[in-house]
Amino acid sequence: MNEAIRSSSSRSCPKRWLALLLALLLALSAGCGEGKAEEEKTLRLGLALYDQQDTFISSLGREVEQLAQEETRRITVRIVDGQGNQSTQNDQIDQMIQSGYDVLFVNLVDRTVAASIIDRAREAGIPVVFFNRQPVGEDMRRWERVYYVGLEAAQSGRLQAEIVKEAWDRGEADRNGDGKLQYVLLEGEPGHQDALLRSEHSVKHLEELGIPTQKLSSAAANWSRSQGQQQMEGWLDRFGGEIELILANNDDMALGALDACRDRGLEELPLAVGVDATGEALAAMAQGTLTGTVLNDGAGMARSMMDLALALDRGEDPAQTMELEEGHYIWLSYRKVTEKDVEDYLRQQEEEG
Fold first, then answer.
1. Res. 290 pLDDT band, cuts 50 70 90
2. pTM for the complete prediction?
């Protein structure tokens, strides 16, 4: 009887060890599966642009996509084009909120509607990073997980004036010799804070630098090269060779104005200064048609946006690892680009791109 019991016990022992081993393997497998699932969790970023026809904004979108590809963290970026229509952009943002995107990057069509976007994102618990078009301060304070990345527009206007001052000092600006600088001003869209500040401070700083000016005309060309060309065609009809300087709130409008001048067969082009330092603008400077531009740091903007998203994804307070003003703002700096350094900027763009 005892022998039978011992024999039965010895036979069941390997079975118990086998069962224990199987359970251990299953547990390890489940643990590895959880780790793999965690590793493969994708950070989903929604990028809402006001209008992809805008050269600078379109290039900024590509910068964000490039950074996402370079990160070791798995990231997808969905870009939507508001086509200059706030209702269209609202629908696009609502779709991304409903789809559960992790962070929203928003370049507003109309900066006065930020509050409703913030409220919808807050309800869903999705942080919002506005860029390039700054919401009003009251809206930015509606929620602690709202941020803005951009540059101080007034600085770009002052740098434009400094570029013109260099040309004035070289004797290249006052072509009719009357001691004044006759200019036309191409503004971005009406009511846009960057357009207002660039326009105001470019002219104001010219006077501060001791350059007497005479405004011939100004008009909004909505950041568009074709509209800049159309406005300049009308001014050439009215003022002809009186125009000594084209001040433009961005490069596309400045290049459009120069297109109009070339179409008229002008042998001597007016001075022309823009903002953004797009590839086409730098090429025009190298060819000697555009006088200068101001670098709008799209690469730095994209990097700051991505750093914010990664910090939020890790559950960090961005204020602990990044330089945030008032807990919400990241400010970058403009840089002027003149004939002395345009080749360096062109070389840099080629290397990056």
1. very high
2. 0.85
